[in-house]
Each structure stands twice: as C-alpha cells, then as structure tokens.
Amino acid sequence: xxxxxxMQAPHVIIxxxxxxxxxxxxxxxxxxxxxxxxxxxxFVAILGPSGCGKSTLLNAIxxxxxxTSGRVYANGAEVTRPGPDRGMVFQEYALFPWMTxxxxxxxxxxxxxxxxxxxxxxxxxxxxxxxxxxxxxRFPKDLSGGMKQRVAIARVLxxxxxxxxxxxxxxxxxxxxxxTMQDELLxxxxxxxxxxxxVTHGIEESIYLADRVVVMTYRPGTIKQIVPVELSRPRxxxxxxxxxxxxEITSLVMEEQMRFRNEEIRDSGGNVSARDESEQVP
Length: 282
Fold this sequence. Notes:
Elements: E1 10-23, E2 26-39, E3 43-47, H1 54-62, E4 69-74, E5 77-78, E6 86-90, H2 101-111, H3 116-129, H4 145-158, E7 163-167, H5 175-192, E8 195-200, H6 203-209, E9 212-216, E10 223-228, H7 240-266, H8 274-278
Parallel strand pairs: 3-8, 3-9, 6-7, 7-8
Antiparallel strand pairs: 1-2, 1-4, 4-5, 9-10
C-alpha cells in the first residue's frame, strides 16, 4: 500500500540549497540549486553516483552541515542544528560497544531523564518490535551486522522522532540480510507512519522501498529527475513494472556515471583527478 493518503502537508522543504567545500586552493560544489519538498509520512529515496552529494544533502536536512546558501525547513522551522525531530541512522551502526543492546536503546531516554519504569517499558516494546528480546543483554561485538542495525534503528525509534534520516543503512549487509532489513523497515514505517529519507546507491533497493526516487547528478549534485514509484506493497522485484522502473532509473544513473568517467579522462593531464576530489565530498 502506498502512503499517498498521508501526503497532505510538507514535512521537509529544501529551497535553492547550494553547498561548497574548500579543498586546498580549490572549491568543490557538492550541491547546486536543490529544491525539493518531502511530505508527511512519505518514504523518499535519494539515489545517485558516488560523490554526487547524497550524504551532504541528508546532513543538511539533519542539521549536521548547513548549506552554503539556501535554506532547509523541517516541519515549518528552518534547520540550523540537529534536533530530536530528526532521527539519524548511519551505515556504521554507531553503537556503544561497552553497553548491552538494551542499554544502547535506552541511552537517549536516559539522557532525557525519563522515569526508569517508562524507559523499561519503551525498551521492552522496541526489543519485541525489532525481534531483539533474546539479545537484550548481548554486547554489540556479539551481534551480526543485521542485528546491530536493528539496535541502531531501535535506538532512534526510542526517541520517537517524526522523521528518520537513513544514510545507506543496509549498505554493509549481505543480500539476504539486506532484504530482511528492508522488509523490517517497511513494516515499521507503515505501522508508525514516519517520514523516511533514505540515501542509497542501490537502484533495486530504492524502488523496493520508496514512494519517490530522487535521482541526483554527478557533481555538482543537482536533482536530475524525481521518479514516482506507483507500485502497491509488498513489491515484487520480478514484476514488469518494477523491471521497467529499474531500467529507467539505471539509464538515468548511467548517464551520470559516463559523465563522471569523461571528466576523469579530461582531467588526466596531471591535475587532481575527479575521483580523488569526489572522495572529499560526502
């Protein structure tokens, strides 16, 4: 089931956003003239080649890195810093290794100084929701990659943010675990009706998960095309419409990959290569 019935009010508005990084005596334009509106309860995937500024855009929404020019608004307020209304899930899990699963999930609630009984109830509910009850007293070193990411998601959900920002959260997982986690995320999203902004380099993943796929250009990162995914859920990756969308988006991304390669060739006369420079841009 698509979530279009909830897309009444804008949750995120990005207006004329540019982001420029300095690299020695060079300036790298990571983002240029980004304009995008994301609605309440929508699942949006941001897709593009390496170095196109996907993570830079997500960090601007999170408030970790402010735009050089332009503005980002979340729920009507300008984003100037990180906030509890925007929960961030990273690829690297970012768990505290000296804390158990339950303690990691409870950490943000304890910082908020909630009563111990409330914290226990919330943690127990999340352990059950993410199928972690049998792992509550384990430490991160004892968990698989998929389990670590479940804990990272549970820790964000504990604070109940209306928006979840996810930076390639399943990129380090094997294919089977990744699909399991994708299904888990969709189940949580449909149940809790949160806005999800999901950065990925996986074309199939973007179509499987999102209401819309925002395809970005190679540097400077701009919005090349926004592709609506008008497929009911659960989605079948072998369906004709899914395959059609996969071909369409692959073509868009490959155009940018070719532009990337052509710039590398033009820049091969002793200058810093486009590949080296792109590694400095999230």
